[in-house]
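Closing statement on the oxa(dethia)-CoA sub-project.
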Amino acid sequence: MTKIKAAITGIHAWAPEYILSNKELETMVETNDEWILSRTGISERHILKGEHKGTSDIGYEAVKGLMEKTGTSPEDVDLLICATVTPDMQFPATANIISDKAGIKNAWGFDVNAACSGFIYALESARNFVESGRYKKVIVVGADKMSSIVDYTDRATCVIFGDAGGAVLLEPTTDNLGIMDSIMQSDGSGRVHLHQKAGGSLKPASHETVDAGEHYIYQEGQAVFKFAVTNMADVSVKIMERNRLKSEDIAFLVPHQANLRIIEATARRMGVEKDKVMINIQKYGNTTNGTIPMCLHEWQSKLKKGDNLILAAFGGGFTWGSIYLKWAI
Ligand code: UT7
C-alpha cells in the first residue's frame, strides 16, 4: 500500500498594519538603528494596536485568508492546531477561539506551546494526524502578539519582537510530496535562560509580580544565542545528511527569524547560498510562531512543486528542530 504523506496545500499569513521602526524605538529606549540592524538584522516590526485584540485576531486573519485561497469550507476542517506563546487567555486554547471566529464547527483543536519552535512542533503533530489516515484537512496556525509580553523599557528585548502569524492547510497525498522527515528536540534545562517568570502556577500573577515586571519576557540573550547557533545548524545538517541531500538539492532554507546572525550561521553550516535562504526579519523582527509561515507566504510565488525545503527553528524551552518537506502546490 502506498504510504500517506502530509502535504501543505495552502498557505496564508497576516501582519498588523502598525509599523514600529527602529527610529521610533530610539525615542523609547537608549538604542539606535545602527546597533539594532548590525546585531539583529531588524529594521522594523509590526504591532497589533487597539483594545481587546489578541493572538486569535492574528490567527483568525491568517485562517480566513487560507480558507478563501484554498476554497476550504469551515465545516470541512477536521482539526486546528495553534502554536503560540501568547494565547488570548491561559485557557481556553486559542485554537478554540480561532475556530469559533472562523466558523469552524466540526473540528477539534488545541494549542502547542514550544516557544519559537512551536510552528514546526505543531506541523510535526499535524503531520502524524494526517498520516494516520483519520484526518483529511488539518490547519496549523502559528501566531503571536509578542507586544503583549514585551517590556518596552528593556532595550535588550523590545527591539527584537513583533506581532504576526500564518496558517497552512495540511492534506493527505500518496504522491511523493509533503513532509518527508523531521527531527524534533528539547532540553528543559535551558528554561533558565528564556522564560516568563510569573503568571503561571509556579508564581501566579499578583501586584508584586506585575510591579517587578515578571509578566514580561526574560531572556539572557548571549546564552540563548550560543545554543541557537549550534543547535539549529546541527539539526539542519543532520536532516540533510540522513536524507542524502546536498546543498544544491535544497531550493530554500526556511529558518525561524530570531537574529540574522543565527540564520547566516545555519546557512553557512549547511552550505546553502544566501539567495536560497528565506529572510524577512528586517521587516517583521522575531514574531515567534509567526516567522516560518510568514516566510512561506512571502516566498510562495517562487516555490515550485517538488522543491526541497528545510524548515528549522530554535526557541525557549529549549526547543529546536528541523523538517524536510517537498513543496506540493
Ligand atoms: O527566538 C527565540 C530565541 N531567541 C534568540 O535566538 C535570541 C538570541 N540572542 C540574540 O539574538 C542576541 O543575543 C541579542 C540580539 C538579544 C543581543 O545581542 P548581543 O550581540 O548578544 O548583545 P549583548 O546582549 O551581548 O549586549 C552587548 C551590548 C551591551 O552593552 P555593554 O554591556 O557591552 O556595554 C548591552 O547593554 O549591547 C548593549 N545593548 C544594546 N545597545 C543598544 C543591548 N541591547 C541594546 C540595544 N541598543 N537595543
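The chain has a mean pLDDT of 98. With this model delivered, the sub-project is considered complete and its resources will be redirected to Aim 3.
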